[in-house]
Prior knowledge:
Layout: E1 6-8, E2 18-31, E3 34-45, E4 52-54, H1 56-78
Antiparallel strand pairs: 1-2, 2-3, 3-4
Amino acid sequence: MDKRTTMSRQCLSCGHHEMLRNEDYQEHLQFNGESEVLIGLSSWFFPICGDGELDPESSAQLAVAHDELVHRARARQLHQ
């Protein structure tokens, strides 16, 4: 796990030069009436505009949750 709290990098959106660490990022997913909230994701973000990136593990967790959400929504549609 990365222990830094800041990282030097320039944002392409706002031009800010420092990213901040977030160990408790939340992502709200919605698809065709299904929803999911992921908590405790790790990320880096720019404080001015909010752009950022998830750590690889959190990115993989988000991808799996999104796929499961789509499968649930499609299964619900098939059984209607």
